[in-house]
Specification:
79% helix
Length: 228
């Protein structure tokens, strides 16, 4: 560790960290926007659910499975034309948000589907007997009952996106991944490599800590665990 290495790290890492957080936050938002309704549709159209539709469930399930099966590095390259169409370029932090969002959305959709599946069927039937519409059941029962599980699943998706954002540096995505590749690996700067890894670990730990606190608060509020 030399003064030059420290100076270089101080110049590169703060903006790179900001770029990484920007990519993760933006892509998490779009993944939520896409993945949540996908997961809801998957659940309500499954066999025995309130909007059972085998054709829709199988078709949508196949699309989601295909989206989840692509390695992220390959997906980024495959989506270059789409990224250019949406953003105008395939390079940079904003461009990386497109493949990050598309990679995370099907992952979160399955998390949503599984969380909704865990809702007690008796609660749904009771709501139907009280005259609740399908929309009311989705909003008031299916989304509220498993909320802690949904929050926990969302945080898992965000943590995955931190790793994906680092991989985006391989193809000009920016952020900490770009610094690690261009200035750490290519220039044999071990200190910079270690620094980027430490920062990524700290980001993941912060996300997990916040998620755990929020989930515990929800569970205490519902009386699922002791307030002690």
């Amino acid at each position: 560790m030399t003064p030059e290495n420290i100076s270089l790290a101080l110049d590169l890492l703060p903006p790179a960290l900001f770029d990484t957080l920007y990519m993760v936050v933006a892509s998490s938002f779009f993944a939520l926007l896409i993945g949540l309704p996908l997961g809801i549709i998957l659940h309500v159209t499954a066999k025995g659910q309130i909007k059972e539709n085998t054709a829709v469930y199988k078709s949508l399930g196949m699309i989601v499975n295909i989206g989840r099966s692509f390695p992220f590095a390959i997906l980024m390259i495959a989506l270059i034309p789409v990224t250019r169409l949406i953003v105008g370029t395939s390079l940079g932090t904003t461009a990386a948000i497109v493949p990050l969002s598309i990679a995370a959305a099907p992952f979160f959709a399955r998390i949503v589907e599984q969380s909704l599946r865990d809702v007690d069927r008796a609660v749904i039937e009771a709501s139907q007997m009280m005259g609740a519409t399908d929309s009311q059941i989705i909003v008031e029962v299916l989304l509220k009952e498993p909320l802690p599980s949904l929050v926990s699943g969302f945080s898992s998706m965000v943590i995955n996106l931190v790793g994906y954002s680092a991989m985006a540096g391989l193809v000009g995505g920016g952020g900490l991944g770009k610094v690690a590749i261009q200035y750490g690996y290519n220039q044999f700067n071990v200190f910079l490599m270690i620094s980027t890894v430490v920062l990524l670990i700290l980001v993941v730990e912060c996300i997990q800590w916040i998620s755990t606190k929020v989930v515990l608060h929800m569970q205490k509020k519902r009386g699922l665990i002791s307030h002690e």
